[in-house]
Structures are given as structure tokens and as C-alpha cells.
Design a protein that fits this description.
The chain has 511 residues and is mainly alpha-helical. The protein is built from 23 helices and no strands. 48% of the residues are buried.
Length: 511
């Protein structure tokens, strides 16, 4: 490999060597954490500079990477920096969070290997490398999820995730086989180039559908979502890494394989249906939960569903922005969960905030007006008009104002409305500006799905309004939604019948 290619692979090598060094080190855990933190910082620095090389070097500079079955792009560089940044924060937080705990050595090794495997996955351009790296993420993440091996829900969640991962790996192997038959190579770039040049074949159509199935299994979409909720038994930094840097990988791969989905109506329809149902369902369940971490987990399920919807609609730039924003937010939310709990208790003592009924009706109109006004500033609209309706429903709650019966003065309520308007405008401006960053994503809006998405988001907004206005009329429905329609209970029984397991002392994964 040339120097540029080695630079791109260096962060992965650093984390791999860190895992080996920590496993061989003797002495106090503090020394291991010091090495891990320094290595994570070095990996982040190398990832940043390799990203600059990707952005500034001509594409022909990476022939050595292509020959090794690897691939780089501007989006890959940004996601790699994001993941390594989250990894550094999680590593520093974990050193304090796990102080005094046993099995810290195994935790550091697993964390380092997860970051190495994620980096390899991001630059993979061969089916076998992609499958092995994604499988490696699952294997080492399992050790982190089961850090407290005496907690049965953690073990159950890990077991359910393992079954889903194995099924996903099998599906990907079948997709790789079909790709090899189709183009005579295991190269992902070769498959995408062949599809772009010659259109879809029956094999490529099946390959796209299999990739959708693998994404559903890996991304905790319905009905395989339960393990993501139950991993709340794992240490908080593990939840942050999972929700901010691992579960988002499916979104990146859908963007990576976008040429494969360009003309695959079956795969796109399946992706849209599952993503839309997951998004609406998980958001409804989130409204019924009280636990902060559980609400954050259901929020992740809903956000993953919405990201999948964006990919199904061909709005890949928006999906990339969503991935980045969600990762940053969830890393902060989980690592500051204690502060959020304290703030929630203060809010509960102060009493439930009530909103003016008029604001429920005017907020979508005001939100849509702001979105369209910002969109008009650009010569080329960054997204279709129907997507502005979806954004209006999504951001409308920001514009709700307190009712006149609250203790707040009118000036404070007007300040809140002004702040909400500014936030909506800023979100729209950032979203539009992001579309002008040359990340290599090519949007292919699919207007045939617009009606279903707008109706679904409108229904979700209406339900959120009903929760605030007539909650007593939703009591019967509340019980079913709170239980998640018992979908996870059904999936759990199926998993335990397919792969029975008992958890005793011999199952301590850290020994």
C-alpha cells in the first residue's frame, strides 16, 4: 500500500494494537485506561487527517485501497471521524464510570475492537470484509453488553441480538453469493457500477431485498427491536456507544448501496413500510414511558425507522445529516442521563406544562411557513415540496406555546414562541446548507411514496396532540401501546424456542 492508503487504515490498526497491548498488560486498570484514552485520541487525530486526504486527494490516489478491497469517500471520512470521536468520549467516560469494577481489561479490549471493526466496516469494499467487520462489531459489543453478567435482562438482550446478528450474517452471505454470480467478483463497487451501467437484473433485485432484511435485523427495527430496549441493563457508556455509533451503521450502508436501490421498487417499498411502521410505533410507545433511558432507547428505535424512511424515499443527504445529528445527540443524552433525570424531577415538582390549544393548530402552519421561506433562499430547492410538509409536522412541537392558565407571563410565552421559530429556522437552514456539502451523496426523491409518509407523520402529530388534550380517552389504547403490542414478547419466545439457553454461573462471558 502507498502512504495515503496506510494513513486511511492507520486508525483501525491503532485500536487493534491497543486491544492487544491492553490484553497483555499487567498492573492497575488506571494504566490500561490511560493507554486506551491516548490511543483513542491518536486514532481520532489520524482519522481526521485521513479524512482531509480523502477530501483533497484525487480519486486515483486510492488504487491501492481498491486492490485491497477497501473504499473511501467524503461521507465515509465524516462518519469515521464521528465514530472515533464518540469512541474517545465513551472511553474517557467509561474510565470514571467503571472505576472499582471487575473485568475492566475485557471491557477495554472489547471497546477497542468495536472501534477497529467499525472503521473497517466503513472502508469495506468487499462483501467478505463487510460481513466479517459487521460480525466483529456484534461479537465484541456482546462482551460489553454483558459486562454485568449477573443481570438476566442484559443476558437476554445480548442473546436476542446474537440471534438477529447471525441471521443477518447469513442473509448477507447469500447476498454476497448472488453478487458474485451477477458480476463475477466480491467487489461492492463492481456490483454498484454494473447496476448503474446496465440496470437491474433479477439477481440484483434479490440482493437489494436481502440487504433490506439484514438492515432490519441489525438496526433493531420492528419486530426485532426488543434487545435495544433491554440493553439499558448494560453500563451507560455502552448504551451511548451503541445508540450513537453502532446502530446507525445500517443507515450508512443504505447510503453506500444507494445505486442498488435506485430502481428496486420491491426493496424500497419493503424498506419504507418497515421504517414507517417502526417510526410511528416506537414514537407512540415512547410517549407512554417514564424511565429516561428507556424513553431514549425507544427514541432511537423511532429515529432509526425515520432514517430508513429517508433512505427509502431516496433522500440520502438528509439521511446522512440525520445519522450525524442523531449520533451526536444520543451520545450527549446517554452520558448526561443523570442530569436529565434531575431536570425531569424538577419539572415534575413544578407541575405538568400545559399548552394552548390554538398552538396545536397553528404550529404546523407556522413551521411550514418557516421551512418554505428558508427553502426559497436557495436557487435550487434542496428537497421536494412534499418533504417540507413532513418537516413541518416533525418540528411543529417546538412552536407550541404555554396556555394562558399557566404561571408564565405573556412576554415569557412570546419569548418561547420566538425561540421555537428561530430554532425551526436554524434547523431548516442547516439542513439546506448540508445539501451543498460535497459528500458524494446523490438524492433520488421518490414522490410515489410521498402521500403515505405525509399521512403517517400527520397522524403521529395528531396523536401527540391528543395526548396533551384528551389523555383520559386514550387509557385503553395506552395499555397496549405501553406493552409495545407485545411484539417483543412474541419475538423473545420465538428466539428461545429456536435457540434455548439457560443462564448460570458458567455463562459469565467475562471469565
Amino acid at each position: 500500500m502507498d502512504a495515503v492508503s496506510l494513513f486511511v487504515c492507520a486508525p483501525m490498526a491503532v485500536m487493534l494494537l491497543t486491544a492487544i497491548a491492553v490484553s497483555l498488560m499487567r498492573g492497575a486498570d488506571a494504566q490500561r485506561w490511560k493507554l486506551c484514552n491516548e490511543a483513542s485520541a491518536l486514532a481520532l487525530l489520524l482519522t481526521f487527517f485521513s479524512g482531509l486526504l480523502v477530501l483533497t486527494q484525487p480519486s486515483q490516489s486510492f488504487h491501492a485501497l481498491s486492490a485491497a478491497g477497501l473504499y473511501v469517500s467524503p461521507l465515509q471520512a465524516v462518519i469515521a471521524v464521528l465514530v472515533q470521536g464518540v469512541g474517545l468520549v465513551v472511553a474517557r467516560f467509561s474510565g470514571r464510570y467503571l472505576e472499582g469494577e471487575q473485568h475492566q481489561r475485557q471491557y477495554i479490549v472489547a471497546l477497542s475492537m468495536v472501534l477497529a471493526c467499525v472503521h473497517l466496516l466503513l472502508i469495506a469494499d468487499h462483501w467478505l470484509i463487510l460481513i466479517l467487520s459487521w460480525s466483529g462489531v456484534g461479537v465484541f459489543l456482546k462482551r460489553m453488553l454483558c459486562f454485568y453478567a449477573e443481570r438476566p435482562f442484559a443476558l437476554l438482550a445480548s442473546h436476542k441480538k446474537t440471534v438477529a446478528d447471525i441471521l443477518a450474517d447469513d442473509v448477507l452471505l447469500l447476498a454476497a453469493l448472488l453478487s458474485w454470480v451477477s458480476v463475477g467478483s466480491g467487489s461492492i463497487s463492481a456490483l454498484l457500477a454494473n447496476v448503474s451501467a446496465h440496470g437491474h437484473t433479477q439477481l440484483s433485485e434479490i440482493c437489494a431485498v436481502l440487504l433490506v432484511v439484514a438492515v432490519v435485523l441489525r438496526t433493531a427495527l420492528l419486530p426485532f427491536h426488543g434487545w435495544l430496549i433491554q440493553v439499558m441493563e448494560a453500563p451507560t457508556p455502552v448504551s451511548a456507544l451503541l445508540h450513537a455509533g453502532v446502530v446507525n451503521l445500517s443507515g450508512y450502508l443504505l447510503i453506500r448501496f444507494s445505486p442498488l436501490f435506485a430502481h428496486s421498487a420491491v426493496a424500497n417499498t419493503l424498506l419504507l413500510a418497515i421504517g414507517l411502521i417502526t417510526c410511528v410505533f416506537a414514537a407512540l410507545v415512547m410517549f407512554t414511558r417514564i424511565s429516561i433511558k428507556v424513553r431514549l432507547a425507544w427514541s432511537t428505535v423511532a429515529q432509526m425507522g425515520f432514517m430508513i424512511v429517508e433512505c427509502a424515499l431516496g433522500l440520502y443527504t438528509f439521511a446522512a445529516l440525520h445519522l450525524i445529528g442523531h449520533s451526536i445527540y444520543k451520545a450527549y443524552a446517554f452520558l448526561s442521563a443523570a442530569e436529565i433525570v434531575a431536570d425531569t424531577r424538577v419539572a415534575q415538582i413544578a407541575g405538568r406544562q400545559t399548552f394552548a390549544v390554538l398552538s396545536f393548530y397553528l404550529a404546523p402552519v407556522l413551521s411550514l411557513t418557516i421551512v418554505l421561506a428558508i427553502q426559497a433562499l436557495f436557487a435550487t430547492p434542496p428537497w421536494p415540496l412534499w418533504w417540507s410538509l413532513v418537516l413541518a409536522f416533525a418540528w411543529a412541537p417546538v412552536l407550541w406555546w404555554s396556555s394562558g392558565t399557566s404561571d408564565l407571563s405573556p412576554s415569557v410565552r412570546w419569548q418561547g414562541l420566538l425561540s421555537g421559530s428561530l430554532l425551526t429556522g436554524l434547523l431548516t437552514l442547516v439542513s439546506a446548507g448540508f445539501h451543498h456539502i460535497p459528500l458524494g451523496t446523490i438524492d433520488q426523491p421518490r414522490g410515489e411514496y410521498a402521500g403515505a409518509v405525509v399521512v403517517a407523520m400527520g397522524a403521529l402529530y395528531l396523536f401527540s396532540v391528543l395526548i396533551h388534550t384528551v389523555p383520559q380517552r386514550l387509557n385503553r389504547l395506552h395499555r397496549w401501546i405501553y406493552a409495545g403490542l407485545y411484539l417483543d414478547a412474541f419475538y423473545t419466545r420465538c428466539v428461545l424456542r429456536l435457540w434455548p439457553v439457560s443462564w448460570g454461573k458458567s455463562t459469565h462471558v467475562n471469565r
